[in-house]
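Explain the record.
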Amino acid sequence: MAKIAPTNKNILIVAGDPSGDLHAANLIKALRAKDPEISITSMGGVRMQEVSTHFIYNLVSVGAVGFSEPFTNFLLWLKLIKLVRRYLEDKRPACVIAVDFYGFNHQVLGLAAHRKIPAFYYISPQVWASRPGRAAKIAKLTKEIFVIFPFEEALYKKVHGNATFVGHPLLDLMPEPAAKEFPPANGEWKIGILPGSRKAEIARHLPLFLKAFYRIKEQHPKAKAYLFAVPEFPDDRIVPELESVEKYWSKDVEIVREKDYKVRSAMDFAFTCSGTATLENALLGVPMAVAYKMPWLTYEVAKRVAKTPYISLANILLKRPAVKELIQEKATVDLLAQEAFSFINNPPRIKAARKELSGLRDMLGANGAAETAAQKILNHLT
């Protein structure tokens, strides 16, 4: 590890998935804008690496997810924990900021607490969805928790946590829903394909979503698909997955990488893996079918620990099945295509869905989540 100049303004930030990487990067930019003398050391992904003073490891690239898969990365996990421990002991940062990714970050918080280094959580894990007992652990290990859903504040305060609702950081990134005509005058329906951000998710969902798209194309020949990819998967890793369903891969599918969501906002409908993408689509007013397939053991465990009746954030926030969810054996080409046609062949339903979904903006607080959290962290450190 490269030597870091001693400073009482050195902060360690850790994130482990693509959405956490995005929001952590924006928090880093906010911190450095407020205090240019701050030195940021991070573990995360490519977005954090671009804006950090020092970068330790690309944790996002590990891609472990679920209840059983992390064991395959156990030795790497131990190595990274030792790396963090050594860093905390050698550099004594002013504070540690964890961003989502509970499995790794709760260990980081424990290491920081043991060394009496103050810690914060920005975008706390969705403990309310499956394991509410984790809220008390997080509360005990942090000076302040910055939550992004309005109902999370009370959850943490119930277990004596210092929680502050700062609004959802997506509000600062999402453009307003695009003005659109239904059906498209030229018949060119734009179908978004968002199979996930991890290799296993892409392998499970991409063939289903592509085949469902071609069902649409049979009835609407000018339809085009847009495959939204994350930076962690360059074309040379995406294309082999596409080629595994060769007959469904053609000029009708465009791979898209963007930071401003302009292409995504132009979608008429989307096939989406459960995750942050569902809320992104909703804020853009894009109707969707949400699907998720996982290994059998992971699913059996998930069923038993789930505390919410829905998996998509749009439905969780609206407290009703506004978006179709197709899980495990229900995630089929037939049912995905059927849900798409229920919108495409009924333009008034698209308009109603766009209005309802984009209305979620009003439930997610004010803009400026990263700036608010950054200022509060700096206030603690002065």
